[in-house]
Amino acid sequence: MKTLIIGLGVSGCSAARFLLERGEIVHGVDDSDVEVYARLADLIKSGLIIESQDLDISIFDRVIVSPGVPQEHSLVQQARCRGIDVIGEAELALQRMKDRRVIGITGTNGKTTVTSLVAHLLTQCGITACAAGNVGIPLTSREVMDHQDAIIVAELSSYQLETLVSRTIDIGVILNISPDHLDRYSSMESYAQAKLCIKDCLKPDGMLYVSEEVAMHYGHQLRDADITIIGNFDAKDLPSRLQDHPDFDNFIVAYSVCRQLGLGSEDIIEGIKTFRKPPHRLEFVKTIDGVHYYDDSKGTNLEAVIRAVTVLKGSIILIAGGVHKGASYRAWLESFRGKVKKVFAMGEAASKIYEDLRMDIPVEIVDTLERAVRGAAAVAQSGDYVLLSPGCSSFDMFKDYCHRGEEFKRLAMGSGLTF
Fold first, then answer.
1. Helices then strands (H, E): number in the chain?
2. What ranges make up the beta strands (E) of 15-94?
3. Contact criterion met (CB below 8 Å) for 328 and 303
4. CB under 8 Å to 338, separation ≥6 — which residues?
5. Which of 105, 197, 204, 367 is least enclosed by beta carbons within 10 angstroms?
6. Final residue of a domain: which of 72, 87, 102?
7. Interacting residues of 68 by C-beta distance below 8 A, sequence separation 6+
8. Within this chain, do residues 102 and 249 fall inside the same structural domain, yes or no?
9. Number of separate domains in the chain
10. CA 8, 13, 14 angle in degrees (round to 5)?
11. In a domain, 302, yes or no
C-alpha cells in the first residue's frame, strides 16, 4: 500500500507515523517552505518521503488529506478523478476502531468543552476514556490507538467530517450549527452539510443527539437517523447553581450522553463539579480596579462572540478581529446594543468590523493586541468587562488561538496596567 499524505501538520504527521510504524510506504507533500524538512526530520529518518507539488498522483493507492487542506486542492481533485481513495486522518483511525465504543461530537461552538467533559465524567466514574480528534490529540496517536479498552470521545470538525465515511460511531452529537468557515465553504448550507455528515457515520444501532435548534432547522435531513433531542429530560436533575452556570448547555449535553452510557445522575453531577474546561473559552483572567478581564480567544466565529456577550452580566469593552471568515458582523448588533460600550478591532478583519458596526457602536481600529488591551483598560469603568472574543481566526497575527489568548492574559495581568 503506497499512501500520499497531503498536509503535514499535527494530524498529517500522526497519520504518517501511524502508517510507517506498520511498515507501509508513505509519501508526504506540504505547502510549507523548506523548513518542513527540519520539522519532519524524525519522520524522514523513519522512511517518510517528501514530495513536490508536481508529483505523479497515479502511483498512489490512497490519499490522506489533512483537515486544513480544502477538498478543492489540485492533488485531491486529481486523486478523485483517478478513483483513488481520499480519506482523512480521523477516517484512517476509525477504520481500525470498529470494535471499540466511539462517541463523536461536532458543532460550531462548545465541542471541545463537551468532548473534554464527557471524557472527564467517564474517567471519574472509573471508565477508561480518551478525548481525541480536533481537541488536539490525533486519533491515530499512540495515546489513543494503544488504549484498546478506552471509550473514544472524538471531537470532529466539519473539515474532518468531510472525509469520514466508516460507520463506527455509537453515539453522535450535533451541538449547534451557526455561520463559520465561510471563507472555505461556498455557503452556510454547504457548511451545515459537512456537519450533518456525522449521521452517515453511525453504527446501525447508533444514536444521534441534536439540539432543538438543529432539529428544527435540519431535522428533515436527519430522518434516517435515530434522533434524540438534547435536553429532553427534567432540568431539575441538575442543581440550581449548575443551571446558572455559563456552560449549562454543555452540561446538559454531557449529562444526556453519560446517562445513555449508564452513568448515574449523582455521579455525573459530582463529576461536573470537578471539571475544569480547557483554557481560552470565556476564561476569567483577573479583576483589576473593579474591571473584569475575560479570555475567550477560542471564540473564532460570530455566534461564539454573541454567546460570550450574552453570558457576561455587565457592560463590555470587546476586543475582536483577526482573519475574516466571510460573514457580516452586523449579526452582532442585536446582542451588542445596550451591552457593548466599545469595540477595539484588529487584524485583517478590522476594517470590515468597523464598516459593519460603526453606525451603531463605537469602533476603534488598532494595529496590535497590546494597544487594544490598553485602550480597553482606559475606557473601562469599575464593574465593566474587558472581553477578548475575536470572532475570527488568529493566523494573521498569532500562531494560533492559544498564542493569542496567552498574550491577552499576559497584557491584562501586567504590562503597565494598574492593579
1. 18, 17
2. 25-29, 49-50, 62-65, 85-87
3. no
4. none
5. 204
6. 87
7. 7, 9, 159
8. yes
9. 3
10. 145
11. yes
> CA 312, CA 396: separation in Å to the nearest integer?
28
Beta-bridge partners for 202: 169
Please, are residues 326 and 202 in contact by the beta-carbon 8 Å criterion?
no
Give the pTM.
0.87
Chain position carrying cell 434522533? 227
Is it the case that residue 239 has pLDDT exceeding 90? no
- C-alpha grid cell for residue 85? 481513495
**Which residue from 292, 250, 323 is spatially nearest to 388, judged by alpha carbons?**
292
- CATH number of the domain where residue 361 is located: 3.90.190.20
Which grid coordinates are listed for 375?
Answer: 485602550
What residues pair up with 64 in beta bridges, in sequence order?
5, 87
Range of the domain at 114: 92-273
How would residue 185 be classed by pLDDT, with cut points 50, 70 and 90? confident
Residues 392/322, Cβ–Cβ less than 8 Å: yes
Element housing 318 (H / E)? strand 316-321
Q: From CA 10, how far away is CA 17, in angstroms rounded?
A: 11
